[in-house]
Amino acid sequence: MNTLIIYAHPNPNSFNYAILQTTVQKLQQKQHEIRIRDLYEMNFNPVLKEDYFTKQNPAVSKAIQEEQMHFSWAKQLIFIYPTWWNGMPAILKGYIEKIFTNGFAFTFTDEGAKGLLQNKRAIIFQTTSHPENYLKPYQLIASMETIVDVGILNFCGIETITHKFFYSVPYVDENTKKAMLKEVEDIVEMI
Q: Which pLDDT score, from 0 to 100, does residue 60 have?
């Protein structure tokens, strides 16, 4: 199966990187075709400027077309990123804004928006420094899930299989981190 991983963490010693490695190893065992878009390694520029896509300016740059080809190729999407300011890192948000253009990821009809990235499934692995009992009473987890799973992915026609949060990552012990990575393996095993 063609699987595209979108990875957004700048530190190669991070737990997010351990999630990436675990995911890749499991996908290789399952004989998936894998492509990784490591946004920091790519030095991806998330700022919309001259490549801003509008109906009046429908052309997208070759760099954006190349990224869109990766999404067209993939049947499975895996996003791996930390929680910063109760959301995804700006580099990932900018990546989505630039790549998921009108006419590629969605279109508007008389009946509203229609997702164009049908028949694709996504898994999200999201880490956070906060404990679960801090985030849930304020509905922050539900808010982040709604924004990503519904407001971005479902809007574009992508089905979210799982949106897995790993809590208090900088503060948990090694055994807890090993258990988290086992959860990553178990989730990837399902696809």
A: 82
Question: Taking Cα atoms as reference points, which of 1, 73, 13 lies closest to residue 40?
Answer: 13
CB-based contact 125:83 (threshold 8 Å): no
What does the domain layout of the chain look like in residue ranges? 2-189
CA dist 169 and 89 (Å) reads: 16
| 78 in Cβ contact with 47 (< 8 Å) | no
Q: Describe the crossing of helices 90-99 and 62-73 by its angle, rounded to 10 degrees.
A: 90
Q: Decide which of 153 and 56 is more confident.
A: 153
Give, in degrees to the nearest 5, the angle at Cα 66 between 107 and 104. 5
Q: What is the CATH number of domain 2-189?
A: 3.40.50.360
Residue 52: which pLDDT band, with cuts at 50, 70 and 90?
low
Residue 46, burial from CB neighbour count under 10 angstroms (0-12, 13-18, 19+): middle
In three-state secondary structure terms, 99 is: helix
For the segment 134-151, the average pLDDT, to the nearest whole number, is: 93
pLDDT at residue 50, as a whole number = 61
Cα four-point dihedral sign 100, 104, 105, 111: positive
C-alpha–C-alpha distance, residues 179 and 174, integer Å: 9
